[in-house]
Amino acid sequence: MDKKTNYLNLIENLDNLLEFDHFEMSILANSSALIKEMLKDVNWVGFYLLYNDELLLGPFQGKVACTKIRLGYGVVGTCAQKRASIIVPDVSLFPGHIPCDETTKSEIVIPLFIEGKIYGVLDLDSKKLKRFSSIDQRFLEQVAIIISKHLTREARQIRNI
Description:
Elements: H1 3-18, H2 24-38, E1 44-51, E2 54-61, E3 68-70, H3 74-82, E4 86-88, E5 106-114, E6 117-126, H4 134-159
Antiparallel strand pairs: 1-2, 1-6, 2-3, 4-5, 5-6
């Protein structure tokens, strides 16, 4: 199966999986599990959620991870501060990279927005150099939109209680 077809399947499966989910943590937990299950050469998938000026570890799949990252630090903090996706072909060349797992060689981080505000980031790591491309970015940004859509729905329902 080619990369595009795999991502289209991921997007469809993710949207179906989250359709009736109304709890923030299960939305994020199941999203990270499905992404890790469906993508090759990915050793860590998870979320960092923005609280004040720190990103705190949310649900993830993979090895134990850093629990707090300041806004503007590392790939995760830089992505959240810039509100833009970042592809890092070789993490050893990224200034200020925070090595949570020494086996990680490349990384992609995608911002998550709820109602136009930064909510957190989706972070994927790989043991393979240059694992992530602009194709991954384009599809993972669509994945982030699906997740945000379900989180937005969930947030609205909580406010109506």
